[in-house]
């Protein structure tokens, strides 16, 4: 809600520069009920408000968000993988293996890389044996853990090292690049997640709101 209020505040501020100048459109707009998403006559000054709002969303606000995402990524550099191997031995996805393969065939790059290395566990008992604390944590975080599918990578050697390190895909190289994913407690990036999680949640909400506003404003300006 705070994210939406922040956007609304900025859009209201620019409205003051686009008030009605009694043009000759002879409209019947009710000034007490104006919303930024309604359609205005072609020469109406409120269209300037909409155009300025769209410009603000596409430029300044989007740039602010980009800079904050950069800051989150910069903070990640303060942490280094401790090679606990949790992410190789126990990956999870909302998608089944078959669904991931279909997504990969349809061009989803993440799914393509995922199915290129990970294979599914046969049942929930197998990952529970591998890392019981992590499964317990997910059970507490999620309403229904049966919606998750668990995977492991056979390329992890008995020595705890990746047997194909030079050729590992990008999803391994950048993990974890999203502080909103659930991380096992052993992961060295848990502290980073705690440090930036609230900012990341706010940005996530803002990106959704901006997408919605841009779509509605573009429609109103047609
Ligand atoms: S390819 Fe290597 S780094 Fe990636 S999940 Fe498998 S073992 Fe881990
Ligand atoms: S779970 Fe985190 S610390 Fe452990 S191997 Fe993966 S990235 Fe490194």
What report would you give on this structure?
This protein is mainly alpha-helical. The protein has 2 domains: 2-78 and 198-220, no CATH class; 86-186, no CATH class. The protein is built from 9 helices and 3 strands; from the N terminus they run H-H-H-E-H-H-E-H-H-E-H-H. It has helices spanning 2-15, 46-76, 86-89, 97-105, 109-117, 125-130, 132-141, 170-173, 190-220, and strands at residues 91-93, 119-120, 149-152. It has a 3-stranded antiparallel sheet with strand order 1-3-2. The longest helix has 31 residues, at 46-76. The mean pLDDT is 91. Residues 88, 117, 153, 155-156, 162, 164, 168, 172 line the site of one iron/sulfur cluster.
User: Which stretches are poorly predicted, pLDDT < 50 over at least 5 residues?
Assistant: none
Helix content: 40-55%
Terminus-to-terminus distance: 29 Å
Order of helices and strands: HHHEHHEHHEHH
- The number of helical elements comes to 9
User: Biggest sheet: strands side by side, in what order?
Assistant: 1-3-2
How many separate structural domains?
2
List keywords for this structure.
single chain; 222 residues; mainly alpha; 2 domains; three-stranded antiparallel β-sheet; 9 helices; 3 strands; 4% strand; elongated; binds iron/sulfur cluster
């Amino acid at each position: 809600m705070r994210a939406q209020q922040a956007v609304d505040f900025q859009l209201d501020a620019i409205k003051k520069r686009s008030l009605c100048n009694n043009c000759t459109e002879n409209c019947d707009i009710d000034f007490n009920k104006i919303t930024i998403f309604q359609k205005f006559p072609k020469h109406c000054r409120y269209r300037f408000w909409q155009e300025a709002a769209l410009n603000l969303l596409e430029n300044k606000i989007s740039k602010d968000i980009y800079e904050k995402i950069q800051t989150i990524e910069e903070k990640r550099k303060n942490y280094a993988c401790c090679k606990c191997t949790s992410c190789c031995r126990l990956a999870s996805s909302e998608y089944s293996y078959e669904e991931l393969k279909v997504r990969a065939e349809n061009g989803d790059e993440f799914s393509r890389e995922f199915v290129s290395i990970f294979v599914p566990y046969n049942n929930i008992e197998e990952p529970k044996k591998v890392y019981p604390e992590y499964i317990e944590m997910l059970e507490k975080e999620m309403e229904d853990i049966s919606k998750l599918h668990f995977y492991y990578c056979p390329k992890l050697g008995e020595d705890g090292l990746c047997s194909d390190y030079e050729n590992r895909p990008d999803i391994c190289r950048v993990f974890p690049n999203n502080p909103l994913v659930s991380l096992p407690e052993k992961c060295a990036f848990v502290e980073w997640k705690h440090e930036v999680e609230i900012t990341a949640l706010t940005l996530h909400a803002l990106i959704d709101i901006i997408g919605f506003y841009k779509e509605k404003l573009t429609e109103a300006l047609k």
